[in-house]
Amino acid sequence: MQTATPSEEFAFDLLPRQIARHLDRFVIGQAEAKKVLSVALCDHFQHVRRCLDGEDAPFYQKQNVLLLGPTGVGKTHLIRSAAELIGVPFVKADATKFSETGYVGGDVDDLVRDLVRRAGGSVKKASHGIIYLDEVDKLATRGEGGGRDVSGRGVQTNLLKLMEDGDVPLVSPNDMTGQIQNAMSAMRGGGSAQPETINTRHILFIVSGAFAGMEKGIRHRLAEAAGAEGGTPARAKVQRLEADELYARAMTADFIQYGLEPEFVGRLPVRVACHGLDTGHLFEVLRRSESSLIRQYERAFAAYGITAEFTDDGLRRLAELATGENTGARGLMTVCERVFRDLKFALPSSRVRSFQVTPELVENPAVVLKRLLSEARSAKPRKEPPAAE
């Protein structure tokens, strides 16, 4: 029986357009982010596959990715959906949970250990996984974000070795139980007590953050350049740019001014801005996304034999209310829970077996609920067919 070669164990033959089409099923909009991410993923994992085949690429620079964008625009959903398609382990964490020393908060090496756990203990599989670190803007040491000072700089420094080519012990130095178990295992086997390590050379790092306030620095930089070239009219044109347009023009200098270390920014060569979601986007998220929140509510009511029918007008009104929450797609959950809370409590104990989600229900759920219960009580009970003898 032939054993699989390393590259056969990790088969990658996807094209950028295939990845983008897959992401379209789950995330609405963000076309530029999907394009950039799809290309970066293909480049990285094609490189991994070639390396597993024994090809040498000494000058390859890993294409770690930085995503900018406000909360709730689909950043995590993009990365998780892509990882599922490719079939690699995926770990997501917030940068704010880590500390410089690891004694207070988490140690950045724990990210890699979590990847091994997600891979079912397989170091080989984890060694080409994806680590996604959110809220990296909170590591800023100065600037508009009001970020952390020396601790943030220390965490950035500790991440540097992981993001390129570092070895991480599978057992944390602070995990005394794990260290003892590892030493006893080594003694029984007659080997060294040194813990096994995992190399991060082929692990792709994707980081993201809202970088609130950075648009002011970008606007100032662009206005200065425009004023020098085109005078007052050009400067005025820059002043009219929306935040999404400004973030799309972010450069290395803007991240450094915001408070990220130059070496840290340098490890993130692929950068793309995600745009905010308006009412139209949120409506499409509800109506078209395969992971739409309304599927969750349909299942919740169906568990009690109740059919919830969502009309387009009702979905649009939900989207309009969610837009006012200013939290992107997360606002949909806030609004839906507020609208459906009383229905989820009362309908399972009633004779109501179906209802429509209309603008009226979204606006006045208590009034519609009262009417549904009244109509169900006044309706004649259906006669059950006689049981077969």
Chart the SSEs and their pairings.
Blueprint: H1 6-9, H2 16-24, H3 31-52, E1 65-68, H4 75-86, E2 90-94, H5 109-118, H6 123-126, E3 130-134, H7 150-164, E4 167-169, H8 176-189, E5 197-199, E6 204-209, H9 214-239, H10 243-247, H11 252-258, H12 262-266, E7 270-273, H13 279-288, H14 293-302, E8 307-310, H15 312-323, H16 330-346, E9 354-357, H17 359-363, H18 365-378
Parallel strand pairs: 1-6, 1-7, 2-3, 3-6, 8-9
Antiparallel strand pairs: 4-5
Written account of the structure:
Helix 2 crosses helix 3, helix 13 crosses helix 15 and helix 15 (312-323) crosses helix 16. 52% of the residues lie in helices and 10% in strands. It is of the alpha/beta class and 389 residues long. The strands form three sheets. A five-stranded parallel sheet has the order 2-3-6-1-7, sandwiched between helices.
Helix content: 40-55%
Number of beta-strand segments: 9
Do you know the CATH architecture of the largest domain? 3-Layer(aba) Sandwich
What is the global morphology?
A: globular
The CATH class name of the largest domain reads Alpha Beta
Radius of gyration: 26 Å
- The helix/strand class is alpha/beta
- The total domain count is 2
pLDDT average, as an integer? 86
CATH superfamily of the largest domain: P-loop containing nucleotide triphosphate hydrolases
Strand order of the largest sheet: 2-3-6-1-7
How many DSSP helices? 18
- How far apart the termini lie comes to 59 Å
Order of helices and strands: HHHEHEHHEHEHEEHHHHEHHEHHEHH
Roughly what fraction of the amino acids lie in strands? 5-15%
CATH topology of the largest domain: Rossmann fold
For the report, how would you describe the main beta sheet? 5 strands, parallel
Give the uncertain stretches in residue-range form: 143-148
